[in-house]
Design goal:
Strand order of the largest sheet: 2-17-21-20-19-18
Number of domains: 4
Strand content: 35-45%
CATH topology of the largest domain: conserved putative lor/sdh protein from methanococcus maripaludis s2 fold
CATH architecture of the largest domain: Beta Barrel
Distance between the termini: 71 Å
Largest sheet: 6 strands, antiparallel
Structural class: alpha+beta
Helix content: 25-40%
């Protein structure tokens, strides 16, 4: 019997200890906070865009012939560097032929020039020499014309010879071989595709309603699934399609981390900027019963405040409800909080905008 009493006593003691532990408050939850503040936000519209290179060319042959060499796909070339070569044996033979013709015509012209000089001296006293002078002067003029024609033809051959070598008009990467060595080309046939990877821009089409709020030089936000950055509006094509009511934007991008062909989202203003009470998007707690934020009171406890969201721009979003400017709201750790819980502030951003930039990057 005493053993049973001792066991019952020990069980009651453990039960009381567990109840006391269950009733004790949990330790303060670490959170990061920022202050809600009045911020000027511009209503933005996200539109799809594509990263392209401003220099993307399909280089074509300018003379006919058999393709003897072409650069490999992936090769990096400098401006002026050879990327393809067309067989030039026939043109080199033509060049040699015309060089011989020109040498002959130059020799004939020089001879006739000396002969005209001699006959002019004789023609002062000799009628027969005067007639011969007239004929020689005519032959000299003809020889001079033949030399001019031969020189022009030689220059044409030299131009064609130069065109048998296709050179890069800008520094870039060979992305496609449209013909292979041994194939025959004609003038205008595309041979190779060259893309400059560090001359990038976004091509996007925005609603005509945004045209009044975008100007050349504006800095717009650009993001993809993995990256986020900004670009500068290079040009606007202010002519919309009659059916789609869209106009084209060209936004210059840095070379990194973007790639040609990448799909991105471009944030374009579609209304005048307005001043609103805003918090970082990370402060929002989205639950089935509605959207809320956790406000930190003076006694370091969390208070749940229901809010209604409005205008958003970047990492900031307008809120209306029980918040006022200067209220501290949780941006990290809110998912673990409950109303009335004690918190310990691990970090407080200097301002909400800096915090939103950090979250978005």
């Amino acid at each position: 019997m005493p053993i049973i009493v001792r066991l019952l006593t020990a069980g009651m003691s453990l039960l009381c200890t567990g109840t006391a532990l269950a009733q004790s408050d949990p330790p303060p939850s670490p959170v990061e906070v920022v202050e809600a503040q009045m911020t000027v936000l511009a209503p933005n519209l996200e539109i799809p865009g594509t990263v392209v290179s401003r220099n993307d060319a399909r280089l074509a042959a300018e003379v006919q012939g058999r393709l003897s060499w072409i650069a490999e796909i992936g090769a990096r070339v400098d401006e002026g560097e050879r990327v393809a070569k067309i067989e030039d044996t026939y043109l080199r033979l033509q060049k040699a032929e015309f060089e011989g013709i020109i040498a002959r015509d130059r020799s004939q012209r020089d001879f006739l020039g000396r002969e005209v000089g001699r006959l002019r001296t004789l023609a002062r006293d000799n009628i027969a020499a005067k007639n011969q002078l007239d004929q020689t002067e005519a032959d000299l003029a003809s020889a001079t014309s033949e030399l001019t024609i031969g020189t022009a033809r030689l220059q044409q051959i030299e131009v064609q010879l130069a065109k048998t070598q296709i050179n890069a008009p800008f520094p870039g990467i060979v992305t496609e071989r449209l013909l292979s060595p041994g194939e025959y080309t004609s003038p205008g046939d595309p041979v190779i595709r060259l893309v400059q990877p560090d001359a990038l821009e976004v091509v996007a089409r925005a609603p005509l309603g945004s045209l009044n709020y975008v100007t050349e030089g504006n800095v717009l936000e650009v993001r993809s699934d993995r990256y986020k950055g900004t670009g500068s509006v290079r040009t606007i094509v202010p002519f919309g399609d009659g059916r789609s009511h869209l106009f084209e934007l060209r936004v210059t991008l840095p070379a990194e981390p973007w790639r040609v062909g990448q799909s991105v989202r471009l944030s374009v203003p579609n209304a005048e900027p307005i001043e609103v009470l805003a918090v970082p998007r990370d402060a929002l707690v989205l639950r089935r019963e509605g959207t809320s934020v956790y406000r930190i009171l003076e006694d370091q406890t969390a208070e749940r405040v229901s809010v209604t969201t409005g205008l958003g721009a970047g990492g900031m979003i307008q809120v209306t409800g029980g918040l006022v400017p200067g209220d501290r709201v949780v941006v990290r750790g809110a998912e673990r909080l409950r109303a009335g819980q004690q918190v310990s502030i691990a970090a407080q951003a200097a301002d909400a905008e800096d915090n939103s930039d950090t979250n978005g990057s």
